[in-house]
Give the backbone structure.
Amino acid sequence: MVHVEIAAERLFQLGPLIFTNSMLGALLASLLLLVAARFFAPGPALVPTRAQGIVELPIEWLAGIVRVTGGKRWREFVALVVVIFLFVLVANWLSLLPGIGTVGFYEEVGGKRVLVPFVRAAAADLNMTLGLAIVSFVSFIAFGIRANGLRGYLRETLVAEPAYMTPLLTPIHVISELSRLVSLSMRLFGNVFAGEVLLATMLSLTTAAIFTLPLAFFVPGIFLGLELLFGLVQALVFALLSMTYITLAIAEDRQHEPADNHHTGETPAPTTADPAHGAA
Amino acid sequence: MDVHTLAAGLAMGLGGIGPGIGLGILASKAMEAIGRNPDASGTLFVPYILGLALTEAIGIYSLVVALIIIFAT
């Protein structure tokens, strides 16, 4: 039976700050992104080299999606959406590398010797996903306040359309805003954590029969490919949901929606071709 | 075999029914829409992924509950 710890394990402690192995995973992911930014951001060549093209491909693809669906003010939040996407993507794919989650030290917990890995998948810890969801939550509220003003935002959020329905609808509205926080964080955590457990279970199931059937070489590989796909999809989902919440918060007070649609509709040919191409 | 295993199995199994039906409806409608208008597949992509995520979240909730029942009690 595989050993599964639902909370991230403690590596060491600095005063009141407990440093967990999941934080190490998140730090590694952001370090990777920082190094990539240091290399490719200062002097982007007009004719991109091969490496620059590879790095720019996902950014351009997602920025194209944000431009098509993000409304008129997409430039204000495109950086946030792309960074959330890149961070979650790198953190998810980093956790699939060999050695991460498997190399560690032994510790006595409750009379049993368990392996504490040095690095754990960053999103397999609810603290990290909740933190990212709080970033998204605060930013869509801030964008809503900046677009509509504090008074406009509060009126939009707290006062229902027929005024006599306010006592009934306002709690529902507040709860639905707060449930975005829970669902964003729980979705990412559940997917990544379940992926880790799935891989470990498949490996332990197939290594038991390794002398009769060499399944251990194939079955975890299939699920590893599946986890690559899930890591991409969950990063995309987190970024696109953040984008949708920000777009809704900005456009909440606007009356003339058709003008906005007309604006985004005037350049359909290059933009709609990009996501379809990237999705295939 | 204790009751926790049964509870986790029930939580995941029953909790998977609803999202399964929902994802099936979602995917079939998306395929239908692409079949009617293949040019719209680019614009359908983002709403489709978002709908997929929101529907799948229900299943993930039951998965988290099942994992907590098994590993954290």
Observations:
- Strands of chain A lie at 10-14, 17-20, 104-109, 112-117.
- The radius of gyration of chain A is 22 Å.
